[in-house]
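Workshop exercise sheet. Pairs work together: one partner reads the sequence aloud, the other fills in the structure field after running the prediction. Swap roles for the next sheet.
Pair: D.N. / O.F.
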Amino acid sequence: MTIAGGAGSSSAAPLVLLVNQDDAVRVAAAKYIASCFGKAGVNVTVSSVPFSQYQSMISQGNFDMYIGETELANDMDISPLLAPGGACAFDVPANSKTYAAFESWRAGSSKISAVASAFNSEMPFIPLCYRMGTTSYTSGLSGVMATSGDIFFNFENWGLK
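Structure field:
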């Protein structure tokens, strides 16, 4: 599951977090995430819509943020999330520094740390969880205290450094 989209502040109109209403777990996650944003002073409203409307809104770029899921191939190729026209690259800029760094790394002309650095500065999406029991986060976050039983433990206290 990932969350993707822009950012805002409490003085602006509420951000809308789009979610497929047919998935109760994602709807609950969206409500919890909106609550956590609220505690940080960012007004987020959850828009829970039928799957066909959800797909349409995402493909048209009609969202602030959305919760989605993608399955990577065994080679962990993230280009569908970053490449212009990629199957899951909604709202990722065509000139993504993260994608350029990823392609440079795949060509053998840079280190994976360059990909991590570009991702950290752009944050084109936020990985929320992994189904294989792995989690990661950028060095730009503070207060992360995930446990083996709850990777989102203390989520409401996470912040940007």
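Discussion prompt: Strands lie at 2-5, 15-20, 44-49, 65-68, 126-127, 141-142, 159-160. What would you look at next?
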